[in-house]
Amino acid sequence: MNKRNIKIFWCHPQLRDYRLPFFNIMNKKYTITFFFQKKYDIRHNLDCYYSKKNSIAGFRPNQLTIKDLRELYRNIKKSDIFITSFTRSIYSSIGIIVARALGKRVIVWEEWMNIRKNKIKYKIRDNIAIKMFNCIDAMYVLGKAQKETLITLGYPRNNIFEANEYPGYKYNTIPPKFVKLPFKEGVKIVLYLGRLIECKGVIYLIKAFHLIEKTNKNAALLIVGIGQEKGKLINTAKKLNIKNIYFAGSITDLNQKSYIFKRSSVAVVPSIITSNKSDPGPLVTLEILSSGTPLVISAAVGNAYFVKDGINGYVFPQRDINALYKKIKYILDNDNILREEILYDFSQIRNHEYQAEQIEKAIEFVMNKR
Predict the structure, then answer these.
(1) Domains and CATH numbers, the chain
(2) Nearest to 87 by CA among 21, 8, 153
(3) Residues of the chain scoring pLDDT < 50
(4) Measuring CA to CA, which residue among 3, 40, 49 is closest to residue 20?
């Protein structure tokens, strides 16, 4: 069957610049209508529309408007395959039910990595999602941890198609643009870049840096990002009397990020698994590696497998402040990790073409399914 004759309705939370190369590849091969739940200011040629609610916060049923429901039904009805993201999303749940009622094939892009045990509301939602597995013809994941979680939850291994995350940009190729920082030129910067939320584990980085600062007055902690934990993190730094710390807010300009990566001696991804959240495959892991900056990453991060301990970075047990301190200190004290080696390892990571190949296999699998 000609791929262009396969009609796909694709529901995804948000069109971001780093996803666009992947969506463009798929759009050239198949006839796709996209439905993005939140609008992002990016130029593209995709056939798409946006949720009238224009929000992806939470999973409340009233988040889905009547207009959205009509669009979901109308587009699923005229498609061959319904692709959606995250089984536990209200968009996905309703879309999957509609697709099954209309006899359509279903592929879910899933990032489920932690199994919630503590809170009743998460148990109920997770159990409902697991029961929906029988309505899903194939799963598409961007990491080994997500795949193993799905298998643990009882989803058939042969129906899972695994790729990997990949950034839209290689930061070692982006010209850096100076960013004014309150540190002297020779200061060694420890960088965090990402959202300031609990599962990102930034509080553990701050506590580890407190130990660094006791012995290294030439080190500084730069925290780039915004989020609900910012106030708590600032208060923690004050209580620990940390002197050389700076909260820079959000920086999204590619050239400025390129400068920050180049200026930093080490970047840290200290994520943890909480009762209701995990960090299955943060893009910043690959952004850091693509810049050549030495990386220290928590073992709880879904794509920590990209880091070869002692070669292109270091891995430490989540929440282990002392282990994190030792890894950062070693990098600050030594120049054993060369940026050229990090960039070489990054060049071996499969790109957007590979992502497309894997989801094409999922599409072929479900089209041939009886």
Answers:
(1) 3-166+351-367 (3.40.50.2000), 171-347 (3.40.50.2000)
(2) 153
(3) 55-62
(4) 40
